[in-house]
């Protein structure tokens, strides 16, 4: 029974945690910059691990910023390492790699490997378990609890966004309706004025009585 519960927990964490972990490898052209952007919710722990293929004379700078330009992590001559930060607001976060080559040197393409995690996957539950002296099953239950809270927050945010979009849609429909009524009134008024004007004109020309 216990092994079945553990298996169920592992399967659930594996299925739900896939979207929280992102690994990517891409080529970085010499003298150019490559940036990766992602929208992340508020109060979310984000960790990243990177590795840059070394090339003689070439250097790669790493910078992590938000949409307001705040630098969350910066590393000159980045070869391999890790970074961790906690988001302060729902925002678009950017990870940029900039290749620098000495003047007069012909640069080579470098492979960059980046693995990012956020939310539950970014936390070290093994260290937490050792500090609190938790059993393996208790650690997995704690991980599952945090993951459930993260999912609830995501659903709450999506509900809030849905309410905002519904309010915007209703407001737009109301404005379109009022504009249509105003346009209709203008057309009716213009048509009435044209009829009266033409009638007066024809009477002046004695074409009608």
TrEMBL record:
It comes from the Eukaryota. The keyword Transferase does not apply. Keywords: Developmental protein, Membrane, Signal, Transmembrane, Transmembrane helix. It is a single-pass type I membrane protein. It is found in: Membrane. Residues 1-23 form the signal peptide. Its main location: membrane. Belongs to the EMP24/GP25L family. This is Transmembrane emp24 domain-containing protein bai.
């Amino acid at each position: 029974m216990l092994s079945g519960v553990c298996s169920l927990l592992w399967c659930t964490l594996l299925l739900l945690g896939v979207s929280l972990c992102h690994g990517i490898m891409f080529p970085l052209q010499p003298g150019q910059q490559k940036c990766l952007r992602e929208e992340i919710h508020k109060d979310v722990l984000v960790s990243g691990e990177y590795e840059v293929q070394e090339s003689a004379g070439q250097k790669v700078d790493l910078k992590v910023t938000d949409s307001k330009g705040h630098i969350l992590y910066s590393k000159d001559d980045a070869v391999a390492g890790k970074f961790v930060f906690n988001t302060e607001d729902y925002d678009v976060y950017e990870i940029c790699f900039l290749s620098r080559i000495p003047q007069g040197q012909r640069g080579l393409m470098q492979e960059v490997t980046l693995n990012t995690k956020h939310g539950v996957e970014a936390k070290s539950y093994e260290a937490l378990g050792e500090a609190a002296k938790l059993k393996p099953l208790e650690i997995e239950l704690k991980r599952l609890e945090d993951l459930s809270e993260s999912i609830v927050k995501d659903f709450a945010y999506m509900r809030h966004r849905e309410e905002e979009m519904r309010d915007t849609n209703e407001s737009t429909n109301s404005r379109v309706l009022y504009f249509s009524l105003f346009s209709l009134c203008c057309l009716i008024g213009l048509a009435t004025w044209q009829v009266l004007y033409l009638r007066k004109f024809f009477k002046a020309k004695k074409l009608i009585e």
